[in-house]
Design brief:
GO terms for molecular function: carbohydrate binding. By secondary structure, the chain is of the alpha/beta class. Helix content is about 40%, strand content about 20%. The chain has helices spanning about 30-45, 60-70, 90-95, 125-140, 160-170, 190-205, 215-225, 245-250, 265-280, 300, and strands at about 20-25, 50-55, 75-80, 100-105, 120-125, 145-155, 180-185, 210, 235-240, 260, 285-290, 295. The strands form 2 sheets. It has a 6-stranded parallel sheet with strand order 2-1-3-4-5-11, with helices on both faces.
């Protein structure tokens, strides 16, 4: 008996122009808008005819969007999967249609769909490390005796929510000054972050640290804290991930402690990596993006380039 052949991602022909699909999941925050803009900005320089869709926060619509791109004959697919499991059918269908897929910024369940088999590669940040770096910064910079933490999680079932949670929780809990009293989803959205924080503040009025999985929820939490008469930056330490303009401003204003960068600017990297793939170079399963860290030491130096 022979072992069943391992799946392989479809090849990409070398061409003058490519029909490129970019399936955005939603456009409800500045990070998503910056990512989509990065693909549009890259299209001309990279000779792409870009088809970009917006699934408006629905994994089912994102799968349908990919279906329609396949029907339109795209050469290559760039996919930021909203959630880890529901987008697996999209990856599998593209593969069956002979279209090489690159996951960008978020990933899918690695037990089911694999880089180098079902899709070419994942281009993106190390979300576990981002959470770990926030935890390490808090351990070094929190000045109280007891840190009472509220955690605002990203979209349930998404790779950044899963990994930013484990990266932070596993490291912060090594220091017994810290306790996580509540951890709830705010769906990576400012409004929901504010609402969830309002509710959690009533149950846990003694909270003095808020860890949000992205800057939008951190800004929402700051609004809720201020509405409740708290003083973010003085009696509550707010920390998060991304590096948006509003977060850098909040750091400059003394309301936020740190944001670990998660870059949305994937267009140029997408162009470079697909060119290498078409040229027959081998692409690693994970093309890792290096992230900076923004604090009051450097936020003002970076706010002009922020989104
Ligand atoms: O996948 C990356 C995350 O998704 C960003 O941190 C967040 O702002 C976005 O919605």
């Amino acid at each position: 008996t022979t072992m069943s052949a391992m799946a392989e991602p479809p090849p990409l022909a070398q061409k003058e122009r490519y029909k490129v699909g970019f399936s955005q999941m939603e456009s409800n925050n500045p990070w998503r808008i910056a990512e989509t803009k990065s693909f549009h900005d890259t299209a001309e320089a990279c000779n792409w005819d870009l088809i970009a869709t917006d699934a408006a926060g629905s994994a089912a619509k994102q799968v349908a969007d990919v279906d329609s791109m396949i029907a339109q004959g795209i050469d290559v697919l760039f996919l930021p999967p909203r959630e880890e499991k529901p987008l697996i059918p999209a990856v599998m269908k593209a593969q069956a249609a002979g279209i090489p897929t690159f996951l960008v910024d978020r990933s899918v369940d690695p037990n089911v769909a694999k880089a180098g088999e079902h899709y070419v590669s994942f281009l993106g940040s190390d979300f576990i490390d981002q959470g770990k770096r926030v935890a390490e910064w808090v351990i070094e910079n929190f000045e109280g005796d007891k840190g009472i933490i509220v955690e605002l999680e990203g979209t349930t079932g998404s790779s950044p929510a899963n990994d930013r949670k484990s990266g932070f929780d596993d490291n912060i809990l090594k220091d017994d000054r810290f306790e996580i009293v509540a951890s709830q989803t705010g769906d990576f959205a400012r409004d929901m972050g504010r609402q969830v924080m309002e509710t959690l503040l009533q149950a846990h009025p003694d909270v003095n640290i808020v860890y949000a999985h992205n800057d939008e929820m951190a800004i929402g939490a700051i609004q809720a804290l201020e509405l409740a008469g708290r003083k973010p930056g003085e009696d509550v330490l707010v920390v998060s991930i991304d590096g948006t303009r509003d977060a850098l401003q909040a750091i400059i204003d003394g309301k936020m402690g740190v944001t670990v960068e998660s870059s949305p600017f994937f267009g140029p990297l997408a162009c470079e990596i697909m060119g290498k793939y078409a040229a027959g170079e081998s692409i690693p399963p994970w093309v890792k993006v290096e992230d900076r860290i923004f604090t009051k030491e450097n936020a003002a130096d970076h706010i002009d380039e922020a989104y």
